Amino acid sequence: MEENNTPEMQAPKPPTVLDGMMQPGFPVKVFTTLFFENCVVFCKTGSFATDSAGTMRSALGGYTGAGLIMGAVGTLVDHTNRESRVNKAAAVAALEPQKIVAAHSRNFMLPYSSITSVELKGPNFAGELRVKVYAGGKKHKFRMDKQSKSTGKYITDVFNEFLAGKVVAR
Q1: Pairing relation of β-strands 115-121 and 108-111?
Q2: N or C, fewer C-beta in 10 Å, the chain?
Q3: How far apart are alpha carbons 36 and 27 in whole angstroms?
């Protein structure tokens, strides 16, 4: 018996996922970004910075006794937050984009046709990558902490895959 592989019978392709895009402000809002066939969805998956360990360590003197202890505590916080974000992202990644947007008031969707440009800057000396997405007359600003050059290249490649010709990397 022959299998029917018509487009109607195939399951939709799962989204490409980038985690840890943070919007500036207080408290920091952390988004998981899901690239679908026709749109990108920004899904709020956390409210803490992604590098609590570094922040807590530097607040108490860096690599001194108290700084190292707080850095260890921050590492536990980071792990817990990362695990929580991954679980939230996994739960919504199987949903349709409209349902993801409806799941939280901070979630939003941008059709690729509405995006005029994306600026990627970095990673800088501290490993931070800055992302600006221009769509519908608005600018959506994000940053991603601790990005290596290879990770920064991967993120650039993902944006270029879905938004070819609209991405400017600096």
Answers
A1: unpaired
A2: N
A3: 28
Taking all residues of the chain, what is their mean pLDDT, rounded to a whole number?
Answer: 75
d(CA 167, CA 140): 14
Three-state SS for 123? coil
What's the whole-number mean pLDDT along residues 60-68?
53
Domains assigned to the chain? 16-169 (2.30.29.30)
pTM to 2 decimal places? 0.71
Q: CA 116, 30, 75: angle at the middle one, nearest 5?
A: 140
Residues 6 or more apart from 16 whose CB is under 8 A from it? 34, 35, 158, 161, 162
Which single residue is written with the structure tokens 């990108």? 40
For tokens 């990770």, what's the residue? 151
